[in-house]
Amino acid sequence: xxxxxxxxxxxxxIHAGQEPDPTTGSVIVPIHATSTYAQDGVGGLRGGFEYSxxxxxxxxxxxxxxxxxxxxxxxxxxxxxxxxTDTALRAMCRPGDxxxxxNDAYGGTFRLIDKVLSQWGVExxxxxxxxxxxxxxxxxxxxxxxxxxxxxxxxxxxxxxxxLAQVAHSAGARLVVDNTFASPYLQxxxxxxxxxxxxxxxxxxxxxxDVVGGILVTSDDELDSAFGFLQNSAGAVPGPFDAWLTLRxxxxxxxxxxxxxxxxxxxxxxxxxHPRVTSVLYPGLPEHPGHEVAAKQMxxxxxxxxxxxxxxxxxxxxVCSRTKLFTLAESLGGVESxxxxxGKMTHASTAGSMLEVPADLVRVSxxxxxxxxxxxxxxxxxxxx
Length: 385
Ligand SMILES: *Cc1c(COP(=O)(O)O)cnc(C)c1O
Hints:
By secondary structure, the chain is an alpha/beta fold. 37% of the residues lie in helices and 15% in strands.
């Protein structure tokens, strides 16, 4: 097997784990639609596979490719980002343990920790991760995990990964980075000291809004064994077609992220000029409070932008319903542009909690269409709202 570590990102995306099939020469990894594998005598496994919950060659290719992209030794693929999140937390926490989470965490992550894992005795404290002193103050003797999102969803706050890794490690805890918003192209948490990187591959990694999935990458052999044990024991694995679609998406990740970032920069400039826009949240802006840290740990600033509009919730909802190219929908990271109202959509479950998001907030996932068309569409919607 070729060692892809010395190669550039795009080369790893296209080739790692995906060498031509040795038996047929198939250039593209086949969709191994099989539940089981013939054995040459009892225990005589031909390719190391015995049953597809435990392992499948298409899934293995995805796991190897994602490990190579994040610079980790091991990858474990799951049926969704939430299945990966659940696995990571259950592998690292026991009843009575404690997790520090962002106070603007992804809604589904907050729900899992607050409504499900709490029933099994896992405690949590939400804090603003951009405030390292607040994180230090939240750490307790039973803290096992500091959970990081950066940029956060939907407020695009920035956390300093290298600094938080030190805080976690000096407390005997582990640092997990949900790298979904940045993608492995823009940010490499393991190189900054994180123990585990998680993606909802549903978003930028898959990139085409046609498949749901998740991944965990680590270089820690023991953690990887724990993830693998749960992956097989609980069985929240992706099917081979899902793994194949995700791999197909990954091949263009670098060029997509460059174009997402180009288009986002155009959209940000147009939003800043529009009289109805009261604030623009984008880590690429020099006035963004996390800009310096983002510039240090990210290659570029990605395709996610949030902004607030004059006229409160009613105006925000108007804007969301008036765009033509930006489709009103949840999710993000696909080639097509999406718009949403976090307060009523993705983050509705945080209403009334300290994670509640502003009512006049609009979030856009800037796609890779022609940038001028996207700007015109958003400006027209704002003019009418
Ligand atoms: C979407 C998302 C998840 C959950 O992933 P699913 O694939 O929807 O289960 C977790 N974290 C972030 C930041 C996300 O955007």
